[in-house]
Amino acid sequence: MPIEWLCKHHSDLGKEQLYAILKLRSEVFVVEQKCPYLDIDGEDLASDTCHLMAWQDDTLVAYLRLLDPTSQGGDVVIGRVVIAPHARGKGLGHELMEQGLKHAEQLWPDVPVYLSAQAHLQDYYARHGFKIAGEAYLEDGIAHVGMRR
After folding, report:
1. 40: exposed, middle or buried (C-beta count within 10 Å: 0-12, 13-18, 19+)?
2. Rg of the chain (C-alpha set)
3. Which of 20, 16, 39, 44 minimizes the C-alpha distance to 29?
4. How far is it, in rounded angstroms, from Cα 35 to Cα 58?
5. Are the beta carbons of 3 and 56 closer than 8 angstroms?
6. CA-to-CA distance for 145 and 115, rounded, in angstroms?
7. CA-CA distance, 129 to 56, in Å (whole number)?
8. pLDDT per position in the chain (149 positions), as tens?
9. In angstroms, rounded to a whole number, what is the distance separating the alpha carbons of residues 38 and 140?
10. If one looks up domain 4-148 in CATH, what number appears?
11. Which of the two ends of the chain, N or C, has the fewest CB atoms closer than 10 A to its terminal CB?
């Protein structure tokens, strides 16, 4: 089945879309990664936050969040990057990053993009032009490193 990509400003999200986003993030970040934390952080519906979604057969299979540079101190911030467990291993993560970077550039041209990467994924993000920006740190018990491009 083909993938349908949608990038929506938070004010344009339907309640079913928002529910699917929060459900997928909870399934992966809280349950699968055994990391109890408050995923709903007040950023999803704030400022000019945009949500990039990949839908396949009416199921959300990939997602990331774009936080606007004005609210984030000058960088576009990519976060909450997630692939549904059943959709992994097919290159969808790389397509998600390419789509995310394309939309970031369309929305905020020539603005640097920052993300907080789980440390074991820094090579993955480096393939998309990200370079380490700072020291490694623990976030919710998982090693992370800031990366910028």
Report:
1. exposed
2. 15
3. 39
4. 27
5. yes
6. 8
7. 27
8. 899 999 999 999 999 999 999 999 999 999 998 888 889 999 999 999 999 999 999 999 999 999 999 999 999 999 999 999 999 999 999 999 999 999 999 999 999 999 999 999 999 999 999 999 999 999 888 899 999 99
9. 10
10. 3.40.630.30
11. N
User: 54, 56, 40: which is closest to 97 by C-alpha?
Assistant: 54
Residue type, 116: S
Strand partners, 145: 117
Length of the chain: 149
In the numeric block, the tokens 């969808």 are attached to 92
Q: Which residue has the tokens 């074991």?
A: 120
- Which residue in this structure is represented by tokens 């994924």? 121
Whole-model pTM: value is: 0.94
